Amino acid sequence: MLITRISQLFARKLAVASGYVEEEDFLRYGFELLIGYFIKVLVLLTIAVSLHITSQTIILVLAFVSLRIVSGGHHLSTYLSCMLFSLGLFILLAVVAANPPHILINHILIILHVAIILGMVSISRLPKEDNNNPIIKSKNGISYHVLTLWYFILLVGFFFEMEPSLILASLFRLMLQYTSLTPIGIKIIEKVNQLYIQYDF
């Protein structure tokens, strides 16, 4: 893959220049992640701008990243499948948030509370035996704090007449992230992964 080749080139040059030749594989992996994320963000923003859903997409990304970095998550087996799935999901959620049904707008305060409460419950009921997941290690861990912070941000935003589509975009992505950590969410991701493998993505 081109990304791997470019990453290998950068890693080799950096390893030689820094004297950490034995860390070349580690550096290559780091460059792959950086380049991969850069491409995803660039493609995502390009699509978002063309569809006039830029603000919804940006807050979706912020909500996702803020919880993902502390909760971890599952990945599809290939870079292409991961990119296609995540981009499609981001755009779909942003489009729905930008053009929400009136019932969601009329009950947005209820949706806010339900979404955050479900998030707390979902986190508390994750399997206790998975010690690699930061969310599971402590019920009072940073993931709870992230959800609580988003709750207050969105609550204040609601009372200060924040654009409803932005509140919904945040909630959509937070809900999707913590749901993906549950057994049901994991099974869905595995099914999607198998589907991509079946079609050679």
Automatic annotation (TrEMBL):
Name of the featured protein: Accessory gene regulator B
GO CC list: membrane
Pfam families in UniProt: AgrB
InterPro entries tied to this protein: AgrB
Top-level taxon: Bacteria
GO BP annotations, alphabetical order: proteolysis; quorum sensing
Keyword Disulfide bond appears in the UniProt entry: no
GO molecular function, one term: peptidase activity
Regions crossing the membrane: 37-64, 76-97, 103-121, 142-160
Keywords linked to the UniProt accession: Cell membrane, Hydrolase, Membrane, Protease, Quorum sensing, Transmembrane, Transmembrane helix
